[in-house]
Amino acid sequence: MSKNRFKSVVKTVSQHKLFTSLKKYSAVSSWKVKFVVLLLLVGAVFGAWKVFGTSNQTETTYQTEVAESGTLISSIAGSGTITSGNYTNVTTKTSGVVTKVYVTNGDTVTKGQKIAEVQLDDYARERQSTAWVAYLEAKEAYLAAVSGKSEADIAMWQARQDVVDAQEALDDLNDGGDNPATGEEYTDSERAIIPKTLEQKREAFTAVEAKYLNADADISKASAKVTAALRDYQENSSTIVAPADGEITDLALAEGIIVSASSATSQTSGATIVSAQTVGKVNDSDGQLIATVNLTEIDIINVKANQKVTITLDAYEDKTFTGKVMAVNTSGNISSGVTSYPVTVLLDPVSVDVYPNMAVSVEIITDIATDVITVPNSAIQTVGDQSVVQVMKDGEVVNTTVVLGISNDSETVITSGINVGDEIVTATITTNNNEQDDESSPFSGSSFGGGGGGRGGFSGGPPGGF
């Protein structure tokens, strides 16, 4: 506000009729009345300065960023748990007293190596004998399946020869003449039987061929039963052995302690079912861990087997692990009206201890774009059906239509419309500034006797006049 303008305002106030009448009255009134009148004058002048001495200004500034070429990784985040550890449980169904322990925690063991001996009670010895007999029967069935394949092979060749012979007999019949087998004319019965014989021989060949082709499956099934029977015998045996190669850990066996397997009666068959108890673990340092995470129906459509994954565990906040998607369950699970889709992640070998049910966070990499121009998502605007980015050119903001590529939570690839080096507007900031004129307040300094005690410029008792 200029000095002349301020003086004009003061002059206007001083010429007002109220001011004039107050001035006349102040000549005959007491000093207290004069003081009140003076305060009214000061307030009027200050209010005029506040109105005319300030101005409102709006200022717009831009945050920019230079477009560069780089790599953008698009990923999907999820959380879950470790569902399978890199270890094998040492289990037993025996009941009795431990008489000998051959290994301690930290020892390296091989599959089948003795871990401990148990003196069985009567019920446990009965189960061991039953399991041994079942194992022997399973081995016999396996050997019979192997022999059955050889028998089926021979039978198939014999049936094939029978088909050839029957075909020759039919050919002789169709050629006319006598029956070469009897040297006489074909009878009516022979004419009816020979064609049907060929049909029957072909059916027999098909049957023995199927048996031969299925022999490998029968052998595999019998082999699996042998493995199961052997495992059951080992779990009921007085000798506890290592189920795999690795390092023995969490072994809870010592000489003199009692081991006791739990049992229950089946509701359907009425048979007694004995549950195995875990007495230790065998860790495999080269084994792989499995994690399961649940994704939403929006994310699952972008997830496929063999996609790369990065994994973090709450137990190791300073480490990042890697892996890949092993399987995607597209059937989904519904809980409280919410559908989720389990994804199985196979971790690469790790050098730290990771246990089942540990919490994991994963980033599934769905796409990678290299040597591309990216801009912050905040820089992209939608105008109608087009995507627009503001570019600063020669100090002016220009709207530029662009074509978008893949994106992640913070950036988007621009496939056309933007060049490397362009100055991209990422944010627009508008501020309202209440700025004073260069002139200072009319009451600054010592215009009215600044400083001093009492009432500022009115110290020293009642004045005699203005």
Structure explained in plain terms:
The chain is of the alpha+beta class and 466 residues long. Residues 1-10 and 436-466 have low confidence and may be disordered. The chain is built from seven helices and 25 strands. Helix 2 (17-26) runs antiparallel to helix 3 (31-52), helix 4 runs antiparallel to helix 5 (188-213) and helix 4 packs antiparallel against helix 6 (215-236). 32% of the residues lie in helices and 38% in strands. It has three domains: 3-53 and 437-458, no CATH class; 62-72 and 371-434, conserved putative lor/sdh protein from methanococcus maripaludis s2 fold, CATH 2.40.420.20; 87-282, Helix Hairpins (Orthogonal Bundle). The strands form five sheets. A six-stranded antiparallel beta barrel has the order 2-15-19-17-16-20. A four-stranded antiparallel sheet has the order 3-14-10-5. Strand 23 (396-407) and strand 24 (411-416) form a beta hairpin.
Summarize this entry quickly:
With 466 residues, this protein is α+β, with helices and mostly antiparallel strands. Helix content is 32%, strand content 38%. Helix 4 packs antiparallel against helix 6.
Features:
6-stranded antiparallel β-barrel, 4-stranded antiparallel beta sheet, 466 residues, conserved putative lor/sdh protein from methanococcus maripaludis s2 fold, Helix Hairpins, disordered C terminus, 3 domains, alpha+beta, 7 helices, 25 strands
Q: Tell me the number of structural domains.
A: 3
Shape: flat
Count, helices:
7
* CATH architectural designation of the largest domain: Orthogonal Bundle
Low-confidence stretches: 1-10, 436-466
Helix/strand structural class: alpha+beta
Strand % is: 35-45%
User: What Rg do the Cα atoms give?
Assistant: 49 Å
Helix amount, in percent? 25-40%
Q: What kind of assembly state do the chains in view correspond to?
A: single chain
Mean pLDDT across the residues is 82
- How far apart the termini lie comes to 27 Å
Number of strands: 25
Q: What is the CATH top level name of the largest domain?
A: Mainly Alpha
Strand order within the widest beta sheet: 2-15-19-17-16-20
Q: Characterize the biggest β-sheet.
A: 6 strands, antiparallel, barrel
CATH topology of the largest domain, by name, is Helix Hairpins
